[in-house]
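User: Show me a protein chain along with its predicted structure.
Assistant: Here is one chain, sequence first, then structure tokens.
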Amino acid sequence: MPVTTDTSAGAAKAARHRVPRTDTPWLNRALPRLRGLEPTRSYGYAGELLHDDGRADMEAYGVRVADLAVRLGEALLSYGGSAEEAVAGMLVTAETYGISYCEPGVMLAEVSLSGYAPGELTPLHARRVIRKHGIDYSALGRVHRLVDRIGARQLSLEEARAEAGRILDAPENGGRWARYRVPVQTGIVAAGAALVFGGGLRSPLCAFVAGLLGALLCGWLGRHGVPAFYRFAVASMPAAVIALAVSRAAPPSAVPAIVVAGVLGLLPTVTFVSAVQDALTGHYLTAIGRLCDAVLVFAAVVTGVVVVLGAGDLFGLGVALVPRVSRAEYLGAPVVGVVVFAVAVAARARTPRRDWPTAALLGVVGFVVSVEFRVLGLSALVGTALVATVVGCAGHWVARRRRESALPLVVPGIAPLLPGGVLYISLTALASGRTTQGLGGLVNVAAVTLALAVGVGLSGEVGQLVRRVRRGFGSG
């Protein structure tokens, strides 16, 4: 039914009062609403008042708005954003184009939206199932900018739908390179990690080959529909096989570096960080789903390495324990490895190139500070959480100035802090039959990774709190 605009001065004043400030990023505008910090009576019509501009069927108009909102929510979640980002993106999009009483939601691998079209009494319902997950921070950034333009009311509905189609339906270009991009970048990640863990000059080449072969095997099995557990178990084996092959000729420090570096690119660090973020923001079911994915992949990687190392131990190919990095060593090759590691992680996640230097700088600072904490005897859990918080705060500050997501900066920055040494000791203990020691070490690895995730989440919450306090003092 047609909707007429109330032209009274009081209604216009109220409408202007309800329109959110456009100088604040859209995610920060939506969070108070999503976290229950606004009164319930404000949960109705928060968008711009609409008038009958020739749309004969407002219900059909509302359906187009809901479809756009859930498509953007699906994109934000599937490209690597958090559940809270997806919910906020759907809320901002729907309310900007006139949907009232919006209730967006994320449930495991599904996004949904309900609300009322202007002048309609029948509620709208829209949902989309997310069937493909991946990390593509370049596409995530384009979706962020699109939602920002929508929230600033710079696009009509049809313009926004056309722009969303160009972003979401664009085919991936690159020809043959598109299939080999991720394997090559995974190999570069492994080469950088080998330098970080002090493997000498020959270990980066071996680690590169291990990471490349593992990613190629994982991709080939994935294209043939093999479940994730078996894919990652097979993909982790080349690192252990190459390490055993060179164990007699290479220096003792090279073998642990090859094993750890070859599997670090397969570990579900981003999924684990996202799961913790979703749990901390109240999206528990989505967090459980992501956590199950992370645990399954982690268990598969451990299984593949332990099987190969165990077989090598039966044939007398024992491997040495990993040496610790001291203060005198981290200013050399490990720092170069951190830069390569962080930039390769950013490139593999399709992070925009302009963010690579920032990610590398964050990674170097975090690595140097974490080594200093270890030299001073600080607990690995406390030190990791503190360093991740500092790196996260810097990443969130830069992202807020750019009005983009912080994950493309923070995730590559914390990647060099992964507990590779503890992981290797745990794997060798399991392979040699010391089950209790190995399981205890894996619990320690999970605890340190959890500290990384909590530190990243804490940095975002600290930034939100500081901004709310500043706005409170400014309004007072």
